[in-house]
């Protein structure tokens, strides 16, 4: 009785969990297991996790910190590949004896740089139906420290990305702040480089476009960054002004080919990329939808110039090398505070291999994309995070996580001081994802359902779970309905962050039901849904994150249930239906 959810994943919604609770909470009839945690071996021959002996060399072969996006790519029935992003690091929970970031040694800094990036591990099906990590040739790390990326697309080889160590401007060492992501029709994984600015030391005489638009100057002062310049001079913009232009891209990795060279795709623009998700348009072009997750930043799409066959046949990475980049302008025909639907335009930033923005070159539009979007009058959004097209309908769902800086409502951003966020449904005109017009409506205006400014597509507020700060959105490949994970409920609702399910059609459209809650201090990332297997995968990111928590004095023991553990470990978790 009271079960919701799609076929294969029926569940009774859990009660919201107070933000002090240090456990992963799942519905009745479901069980969970950590699949892999920070420091576990990834590359063959990696040493086991040892908190007192972490080194850059070990970390380069082990699962990174703060797992974010995840994908489970099947290899037949009994094996699969897990791909996970590692967004950032919490040194106060990683380094025994931590005092301040400024006091970290060069080796500790290098270990942190190595804990960024992505991991690939092979999985095999265990006897109990849960997946287990299997050492194999597929085990691979992409790190901030040493992995060589090929810079591709229109910006590759141009002056803006040339450095002393890479005078050709085509090879970048490392990927950083990999947040959300998506799969491509040809089986690879895209990952967004998000808050890359934090790793770079600002400079008063630096390129003003980076200083201002990409936040290297705050309150008139150049940022000190995370002291990474002490480990590697390229992170000091005074010494290497162009290195920073080589981060902030969508990267592509091919987990099925352990020897492949990963790519940074410059045709998709440079900003604080949350992620990128793709679909094949009816005409055959590959379309990538992307959010720039900062207050007042924008929503984008890329349309490939070349086309693929039906169902993505013939799709390949090179499709992302050339195409048009657009940014969204939302329009409302009433008061934006109360108007819940409207139309919109995709404004071109690049067109047919040229700049479409007056006063900016093609390369400048792609490297300083935020400036280009502002110039053409794109709509400043409430932190557009993950964006995901429904594989059944092509409708696109945009998670706007929050924006307490907003002073007045704007089309598709209905609340000033929007602390709880909202979710937009975007429908391309005529169902053509390559076009320039769309319709939009608000699916959810989030918050405590007792707050009169919330909206659940007309579903009665008293029958939904509280939801705040939507961040990642996901679909199962077969079963309808949107899955939404959150990042911020502890501060807005005093509840642990959550994973929710929301039907999109029929009488239950807007009925938000909570599936799980992550432990204290964590945010819910991933998620990856496999309804046919009765499984939900989430990345439990930054468990026990507080400014004052330390190794040996943590706020969370996750994934352990034994509170004597010295520090929590961000982990990929499988939740599986075990009851009838
Ligand atoms: Fe890394 Fe926008 O969350
Ligand atoms: Ca309207
Ligand atoms: Ca996110
Ligand atoms: Ca986040």
From TrEMBL:
<dbReference type="InterPro" id="IPR006311">
    <property type="entry name" value="TAT_signal"/>
</dbReference>
<feature type="compositionally biased region" description="Polar residues">
    <location>
        <begin position="569"/>
        <end position="580"/>
    </location>
</feature>
<dbReference type="InterPro" id="IPR008557">
    <property type="entry name" value="PhoX"/>
</dbReference>
<feature type="region of interest" description="Disordered">
    <location>
        <begin position="546"/>
        <end position="580"/>
    </location>
</feature>
<dbReference type="InterPro" id="IPR019546">
    <property type="entry name" value="TAT_signal_bac_arc"/>
</dbReference>
<protein>
    <submittedName>
        <fullName>PhoX family phosphatase</fullName>
    </submittedName>
</protein>
<dbReference type="Pfam" id="PF05787">
    <property type="entry name" value="PhoX"/>
</dbReference>
């Amino acid at each position: 009785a009271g079960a919701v959810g799609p076929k294969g994943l029926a569940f009774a919604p859990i009660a919201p969990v107070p933000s002090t609770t240090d456990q992963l909470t799942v519905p009745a009839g479901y069980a969970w297991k950590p699949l892999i945690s920070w420091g576990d071996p990834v590359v063959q021959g990696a040493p086991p996790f040892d908190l007192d002996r972490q080194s850059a060399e070990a970390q380069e072969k082990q699962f990174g910190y703060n797992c974010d996006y995840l994908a489970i790519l099947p290899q037949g029935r009994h094996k699969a590949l897990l791909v996970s992003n590692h967004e950032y690091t919490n040194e106060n929970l990683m380094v025994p004896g931590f005092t301040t970031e400024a006091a970290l040694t060069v080796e500790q800094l290098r270990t942190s740089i190595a804990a960024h990036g992505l991991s690939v591990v092979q999985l095999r099906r265990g006897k109990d139906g849960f997946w287990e990590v299997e050492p194999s040739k597929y085990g691979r790390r992409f790190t901030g420290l040493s992995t060589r990326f090929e810079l591709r697309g229109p910006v590759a080889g141009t002056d803006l990305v040339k450095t002393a160590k890479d005078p050709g401007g085509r090879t970048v060492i490392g990927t950083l702040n990999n947040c959300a992501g998506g799969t491509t029709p040809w089986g690879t994984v895209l990952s967004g480089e998000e808050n890359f600015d934090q790793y770079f030391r600002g400079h008063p005489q630096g390129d003003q476009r980076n200083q201002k638009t990409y936040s290297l100057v705050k309150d008139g002062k150049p940022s000190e960054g995370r002291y990474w310049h002490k480990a590697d001079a390229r992170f000091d913009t005074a010494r290497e002004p162009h290195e920073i232009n080589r981060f902030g891209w969508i990267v592509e990795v091919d987990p099925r080919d352990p020897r492949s060279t990963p790519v940074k795709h410059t045709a998709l623009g440079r900003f604080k990329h949350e992620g990128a998700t793709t679909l094949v348009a009816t005409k055959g072009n590959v379309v990538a939808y992307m959010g720039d997750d900062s207050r007042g930043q924008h929503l984008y799409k890329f349309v490939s110039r070349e086309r693929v066959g039906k169902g993505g046949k013939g799709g390949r990475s090179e499709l992302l090398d050339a195409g048009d980049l657009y940014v969204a302008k939302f329009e409302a025909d009433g008061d934006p505070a109360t108007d819940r639907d409207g139309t919109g335009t995709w404004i071109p930033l690049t067109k047919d291999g040229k700049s479409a923005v007056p006063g900016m070159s093609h390369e400048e539009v792609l490297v300083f994309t935020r400036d280009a979007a502002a110039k053409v009058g794109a709509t400043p959004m409430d932190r557009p995070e993950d964006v995901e097209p429904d594989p059944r309908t092509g409708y696109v769902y945009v998670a706007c996580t929050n924006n307490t800086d907003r002073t007045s409502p704007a089309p598709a951003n209905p609340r000033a001081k929007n602390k709880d966020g909202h979710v937009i449904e975007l429908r391309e005109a005529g169902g053509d994802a390559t076009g320039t017009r769309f319709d939009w409506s608000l699916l959810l205006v989030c918050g405590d359902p007792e707050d009169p400014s919330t909206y659940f597509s007309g579903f009665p507020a008293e029958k939904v779970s509280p939801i705040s700060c939507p961040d990642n959105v996901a679909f199962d490949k077969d079963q309808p309905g949107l899955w939404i994970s959150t990042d911020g409920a502890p501060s807005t609702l005093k509840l642990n962050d959550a994973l929710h399910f929301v039907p999109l059609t029929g009488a239950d459209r807007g009925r938000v039901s909570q599936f799980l809650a992550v432990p204290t201090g964590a945010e819910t990332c991933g998620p990856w849904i496999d309804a046919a297997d009765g499984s939900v995968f989430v990345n439990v990111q930054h468990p026990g994150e507080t400014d004052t928590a330390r190794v040996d004095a943590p706020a969370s023991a996750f994934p352990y249930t034994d509170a004597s553990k010295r520090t929590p470990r961000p982990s990929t978790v499988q939740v599986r239906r075990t009851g009838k």
